[in-house]
Amino acid sequence: MSFVSVFNELPFRALERKSRETSIGEVKECLSREGRELEDFSRLISPAANEMLELLCARSQQITRQRFGKVIRFFAPLYLSNECINNCKYCGFSRDNPILRVTLSLEEVRREAAALKEQGFRNLLLVAGEHSKFVSNSYLADCVRMLHAEFPSVSLEVGPMDLEEYRPICAAGAEGLVVYQETYDRTVYAEVHTAGPKRDFDWRLETPERAYAAGFRRLGIGALHGLSDWRLEALAVAAHAQYLLKHCWKAQVTISVPRLRPHAGEFQPLTHMTDRELVQLVAALRISFPDVGLVLSTREQARLRDGLIPLGITMISAGSHTEPGGYTGAGKEKIHRTERGRIVELAAGASEWAGISGMATNATGQFEISDNRPADEVARRVRSMGYEPVWKDWDAALSE
């Protein structure tokens, strides 16, 4: 039975109502015992639990130190392409956005990776829009194969593929796959995904299972907060994590907690999640899933990121760029602009650039980041808090 079948039977609305009706006494009772069911998680994300945030954070910090020690794993996103055939209202890469697009060549990918290696990164997340013409599984396999010799940890965040398409990418050396459902609310999902293969909710929801069957040993999931009620999304993510921990038990599971950020296009968040609620969610996830990695990106401001590190976060990005070629300027010479499906080729320095306000000659990023600190500055801050930044936590040689 796939998670889709499980998902369809879960009473998320009833659990969300129970969450809102939870008393402080029930939260205390939940914290007093071991073991966490989905109903317990609903209590930890309740308004009543928000009033006890200090207690939740203390428990979360205790569990994190016990299970992970005082280390923070660093990674860098490396954007390969911003080409995409999907229309997703909330995404800067959406196919109808008139943005500057580029797909990096293998040599340009190597240059980007070399710049990240010089900063200290040994853990890369390769990111791309969904477009089989520009971002095929063979292209991804070639990228992974080239990088694997220098980077012991290479993961992907790309459009979902079938099992057989994943196998050569795993064989090339990829160890992790990240796929956010974006929203687990079927109604909202249909409203914000207006065209392209991403409209298939169930196909996307089953992606981690196909990835596991293909051989990926790290599976990353999450919801993009700002599309539907955050408690409903959190309950669905928790249910998904429970399923993967049980059925894909040979893989490590990570959960990310991204919130919507400004991007190309005019889409505004449909819901709002406060900083305090984000802190509560991180604490609730850590208490409920002691051994799951919790990921925080540069979407969040520096002060909030620093504050969340002791409370349950185990993996962060730093010094990130969300556009192809962002670290070295690679790919500038072949950027093109898209206008409602029409492609206009632009050579670097051509007069047409003057009509594209603020874009200069860089490909358009997926979203604006909030924490603009260089990676070494973030690492110094992590050390000053008494934690050790980990750039590389395993070596392929140890598993051969």
Task: Record keyword descriptors for this entry.
TIM Barrel; 400 residues; 39% helix; eight-stranded parallel barrel; 16 helices; three-stranded antiparallel beta sheet; alpha/beta; single chain
Write up this protein.
There is one protein chain. The protein is an alpha/beta fold and 400 residues long. The protein has a single domain (3-399), classed as TIM Barrel (Alpha-Beta Barrel), CATH 3.20.20. 39% of the residues lie in helices and 15% in strands. It is built from 16 helices and 14 strands. The protein has an 8-stranded parallel beta barrel with strand order 1-4-5-6-8-9-10-11, surrounded by 5 helices. The protein has a 3-stranded antiparallel sheet with strand order 3-12-13, with no helix packed on it. The chain has a two-stranded antiparallel sheet with strand order 2-7. α2 packs across α4 (38-44). The longest helix has 18 residues, at 230-247. The protein starts with a helix and ends in a 10-residue tail after the last strand.
The order of strands across the largest sheet is: 1-4-5-6-8-9-10-11
Question: Rg from C-alpha positions?
Answer: 21 Å
Count of the domains: 1
The CATH homology group name: Aldolase class I
Report the total helices: 16
Strand content: 15-25%
Low-confidence stretches: 347-360
What class do helices, strands and sheet pairing give? alpha/beta
C-alpha geometry: globular
Q: Which sheet architecture does the biggest sheet show? A: 8 strands, parallel, barrel
Helix-strand pattern = HHHHHHEEEHEHEHEHEHHEHEHEHEEEHE
Helix amount = 25-40%
Distance N to C terminus = 33 Å
